[in-house]
Design goal:
Length: 74
């Protein structure tokens, strides 16, 4: 049982470290990638960051967040 826990810990550590990689292909444009929940926050970040940020909003323009249905993940 201890062996399986240590293998699981090693796999979890590898997954975490893989997410911290240095992918230069996406950074060649020199912009900071920002993900926002709503379009309003995305507009705010674009106005503050200007040409130094690349903004992706999870909710498109005109979507009212009050109508988004929450769901339980687990």
């Amino acid at each position: 049982m201890g062996f399986l826990k240590s293998i699981g810990g090693v796999l979890a550590a590898l997954l975490i470290l893989t997410g911290c990689g240095n992918d230069t292909a996406e950074r060649d444009n020199g912009k900071l990638n920002v993900v926002t929940t709503t379009g309003m926050i995305g507009d705010l970040v674009e106005n503050i960051g200007g040409k130094n940020v690349e903004v992706t909003s999870l909710m498109g323009p005109g979507v009212d967040p009050i109508y988004i249905k929450r769901r339980r993940v687990m």
